[in-house]
TrEMBL record:
Chain spans, region Disordered: 25-45
Ranges where the DZIP3-like HEPN domain occurs: 86-140
Domain of life the protein comes from: Eukaryota
Organism the protein comes from: Sinanodonta woodiana (Chinese pond mussel)
Protein name stated in the entry: DZIP3-like HEPN domain-containing protein
InterPro entries, per the entry: HEPN_DZIP3
Lineage: Eukaryota, Metazoa, Spiralia, Lophotrochozoa, Mollusca
Length: 215
């Protein structure tokens, strides 16, 4: 069983309800189950509480860091894990390619330590969007260009909003655009995982963030 632990530092420190961790069986990820109706995730201001600029920033943070990384982790399992190959085995088979990424400075030493921790298995919960994006782009050969474009969009949006921000605020107009664009991307990536139940779970998680406020 691969345990996926979602980063909760942003939501917890802000007083938002933290996103729950989830466990996935490697053998189950390619076996879609039935799903219930899928909720809407569009940023309709008539259906969400009144938000100030900081609330909006924290919503986008939770959406990208918690939900975004969780979806990408699930997608990585879908593309790499089979009944006869674990994630660790897949990484070991790609070790030469990954070492080359390190030499080219596409990934750094700390990321290498996450992928190949001494004397231990790699913990998927430690993978962030940057590392996941590097893996998808360079060592997952069966991923489509459409999927890569969406993954790179999430990475670039994360960098745009967080890496280069000067304040922890998001305006109302930017919030509408960011929220809807990110949600559409996450919904599309969920569909690529071929698991309607997971898709439904993620959309309900997004909806929970949408109606939360900073305490």
């Amino acid at each position: 069983t691969v345990v996926i632990l979602d980063p909760s530092s942003v939501s917890t420190s802000a007083g938002l309800t933290p996103v729950m961790s989830s466990s996935y069986s490697e053998g189950d990820i390619v076996q879609p189950q039935s799903s219930n109706s899928i909720p809407s995730t569009s940023a309709d201001v008539t259906q969400v509480p009144s938000l100030d600029d900081t609330d909006r920033f924290m919503h986008i943070a939770c959406l990208l860091i918690n939900v975004g990384s969780r979806v990408l982790k699930r997608l990585l399992l879908y593309h790499t894990v089979t009944p006869t190959c674990t994630l660790d085995q897949y990484l070991a088979n790609k070790r030469i390619d990954i070492d080359n990424l390190r030499k080219r400075r596409i990934i750094n030493k700390s990321q290498m330590d996450i992928l190949f921790p001494p004397g231990a298995s790699s913990n998927l919960g430690d993978y962030d969007i940057s590392l996941l994006s590097a893996l998808f782009t360079n060592i997952v050969p069966n991923i489509s260009q459409h999927e890569l474009n969406m993954i790179q969009f999430l990475r670039d949006k994360r960098n745009e909003i967080f890496a280069h921000t000067k304040s922890v605020t998001v305006s109302s107009n930017d919030y509408q655009t960011f929220w809807n664009d990110i949600c559409k991307t996450l919904e599309a990536l969920c569909k690529q995982c071929n698991d309607p139940d997971f898709q439904n779970e993620i959309l309900r998680e997004i909806q929970g963030i949408q109606v939360s406020t900073v305490q």
